[in-house]
Structures are given as structure tokens and as C-alpha cells.
Amino acid sequence: MSIGPWEILWIVCGLATLIAGVMATRGRRWLNLGRFAVGILFLVGGATFNFITLVFGEGYDGFADDAHFGWVTDAWGSIVAPYQGVWIGLLVAFEAVVGLLVLSGGRRTQLGYVAVIAFYSALWVFGWFTTIWAALMIPVMVMLLRAERHAAIGANSVAEIEAKSTAGVGS
């Protein structure tokens, strides 16, 4: 197996996400790194890659061949493979929306992270590589989500304090 530009992108974004998740409580720059890495992973490494593969590639017939359960391989072969344009098209749309949500900040980032966690939670059944990826990334995504929620709560608290302190000025 050769390592090409897509694999490099996935590795770099994955490592950046891992680092950002571990460091997320130590400052905004780590939250921003997490947003950027996950957003780019889903927009470019996910949506763009899957679109290009769908249009110009070999297709997705054998994607589930290494699945942990026979029913996953069977379901993929009978439901997804014959209608790749529809199913992979929906995947591309999902990954693009998630990437944009993650990059957009605030509650939208949190919603995007929830979608990433759900996606990774379903991905593990497709083989050992995806199982290892999910096992590494789900806890990291939970750390990023938690840090985003704490940052939002902190920002709201500061805004409330500032609003209360300026409400009495000039009265």
C-alpha cells in the first residue's frame, strides 16, 4: 500500500485532532486547531475525496469486505453497492455539512462534533482499520466537544457579567 496525498491528509488531520483534543482545555488555539483539523478532514478528506472517488474512481463495491460481521458485508453489497450514486452522494453531503458546521464555530461546531461522534460510532464495524480509528477518535472528539461546551459556557458567563455591569451605567 502506497501513501499518497489523501493518506497524508488523513494522517495529518488525525494527528492534529488527537493533539488538539488532549490540549483542548489549555486554550483557544487548541480548540481552533481541533476545529480546523476535523473540518478539513470532513470537507476535503471526506466529502471531496468521496466525490472524486465516486465520479472518477473504482467505486465502493468492496468497502465492506473486511467488516467484522457478515451481515454488514451482505447489507453493503445489496443496498449500498448497487446504488452508490445515491448512498455515497448522501455521504458526501453529510461530510460537507459536518465539515462546515465544525468550522463555523459556536453551537454549530458542537453539533458538528456530535455528528462526527455518531459517524465514528457507526464506522467501526467496517474492519480493523476503522475500528482502531474510531477507538482513538471517539474519546478525542468527546474531549473536543466538552472543551467547546465549556468555552461557550465561559463566554456566555463573561457576556452576562459585562451586560450586568454596563446595565447600571448611566441610570
| Beta-strand share of residues | under 5%
> DSSP helix count?
6
Q: Which class of secondary structure composition applies to the elements? A: mainly alpha
- Succession of helices and strands: HHHHHH
> Looking at the structure, what is the overall shape?
elongated
Oligomer: single chain
Report the C-alpha radius of gyration, rounded: 19 Å
Low-confidence stretches: none
Main beta-sheet strand count, sense and barrel state: none
- The count of DSSP E runs of length 2 or more, i.e. the number of strands, is 0
What is the average of the pLDDT values? 91
Please give the alpha-carbon distance between the first and last residues: 71 Å
Helix content: over 70%
Characterise the protein shown here:
The chain is mainly alpha-helical. The protein is 81% helix and 0% strand. It has 6 helices and no strands. Helix 1 crosses helix 6, helix 4 packs antiparallel against helix 5 and helix 5 packs antiparallel against helix 6. The mean pLDDT is 91.
At a glance:
By secondary structure, the protein is mostly helical. The protein has helices spanning 5-23, 28-56, 70-80, 84-104, 106-123, 128-167. The mean pLDDT is 91.
Features:
171 residues, mainly alpha, 81% helix
What is this structure's SSE topology?
Elements: H1 5-23, H2 28-56, H3 70-80, H4 84-104, H5 106-123, H6 128-167
Helix pairs in contact: 1-2, 1-6, 2-4, 4-5, 5-6
